[in-house]
Design goal:
The chain contains twelve helices and twelve strands. Helix 8 (about 185-200) packs parallel to helix 9 and helix 10 (about 250-265) runs parallel beside helix 11. The chain is globular. It has helices at about 1-25, 100-105, 125-130, 145-155, 160-165, 170-175, 180, 185-200, 220-230, 250-265, 280-290, 315-320; strands at about 35-45, 50-60, 65-70, 75-80, 85, 90, 110-120, 140-145, 205-210, 235-240, 270, 295. About 40% of the residues are buried. Bound molecules: zinc ion (ZN). Zinc ion (ZN) binds near residues 117, 239, 271 and 272.
């Protein structure tokens, strides 16, 4: 838990420093070789303050010490002509949580990469963090996965097969269909919730649910899953029940999660809501946020996605029902 909290603080401090320094930079002349590193001629963009200009950045002791349009010199210089210089991006929907994936993320400017949709298997969250400790090139974090806990209860996969998140979904999804279509009885439901709960106690940032992949999950199950997160004041991030759906079912999927979040006074994240009906989902999110509710949404930066071919919603019958919407 501390790991990601510390990282967010660093990002916040960096942004605050940029804001402060941009304010004062015009009144100070650039100093000689005071900087350890200078990044010259880049298009400096800070989404928080809307700063957007070709400028030079002086870095000292690992921190931004100056942003100015005047020339800077330092011990080391990077020419960023025709490049954007921005704070590291935070991606909360990043499924390739492995070294090679992180290397590619860095090339996109992502310095914090987290899988808050699938997450990892609760009882192995500690192992997941150990896998990253002192080895990760990016800031990292994960959530306690609903699907992994459901797969454990319905298919009793060995823990080893559930550690390798998020790729282990392939193992569990291929093993049977019980993880997707089984309606849990009371005992199974409580066992599943205990796995999710264990993940939160081991440092998961919140709860991750791929609900749309398992129609066997009842409304009660989803409510109880969100309640586990609520017990710790943590979010539940959800791939909605009807995704991919229609202009009616997509917002209905969001309404389920937002209504539960409201009743439980819990944060919630609506995953990739750039689907049919997104305008209504966005309005719901805006209005909830205006009322002080801690709910967010996220969208894909691209128009297509990919998934496992045997996903329940890929059945021809269901796709056929979508036409003409
Ligand atoms: Zn998804």
């Amino acid at each position: 838990m501390k790991r990601i909290t510390r990282n967010f603080v660093l990002v916040t401090i960096t942004l605050a420093m940029m804001t402060l320094l941009m304010t004062v930079s015009l009144s100070f002349a650039a100093n000689g070789k005071d900087y350890d590193l200078v990044i010259n001629n880049g298009r400096v963009m800070d989404p928080e303050t809307n700063y957007d200009a070709v400028a030079n950045i002086g870095i000292k002791d690992g921190k931004i010490a100056m942003i100015t349009e005047q020339k800077l010199t330092g011990k080391e210089t990077i020419d960023a002509t025709n490049h954007v210089v921005a704070p590291g991006f935070i991606d909360t929907h990043f499924h390739w949580t492995r070294p090679i994936g992180y290397k590619l993320a860095l090339r996109d400017g992502v310095t914090t990469a987290m899988d808050l949709e699938a997450g990892a298997y609760g009882p192995r969250i500690d192992d997941w963090y150990k896998m990253h400790q002192n080895k990760s090139q990016v800031n990292y974090g994960t959530a306690s996965g609903h699907e992994f806990a459901r797969s454990k209860v319905t298919q009793n996969l060995p823990d080893e097969d559930l550690l390798d998140a998020p790729f282990s979904v392939v193992k569990s999804r291929a093993a049977s269909t019980a993880w997707a279509d089984k309606v849990l009885d009371l005992e199974e439901g409580n066992q599943m919730l205990s796995y999710i709960d264990e993940g939160l106690r081991l440092g998961a940032l919140g709860v991750a649910s791929t609900l749309g992949y398992f129609p066997g999950a009842t409304a009660r199950e989803m409510y109880e899953v969100q309640k586990v997160g609520a017990n710790y004041g943590r979010f539940t991030a959800v791939h909605l029940r009807y995704t991919p759906g229609t202009v009616t079912t997509e917002p209905n999927g969001a309404q389920e999660i937002l209504a539960n979040a409201e009743a439980l006074n819990a944060p919630a994240i609506i995953n990739h809501f750039n689907n049919p009906g997104w305008q209504l989902v966005q309005e719901l999110l805006v209005r909830y946020r205006e009322r002080g509710k801690n709910v967010w949404g996220e969208i894909y930066p691209y128009a297509a996605g990919s998934t496992t071919i045997n996903a329940d919603f890929c059945q021809t019958r269901k796709l056929g029902r979508k036409t003409g919407q």
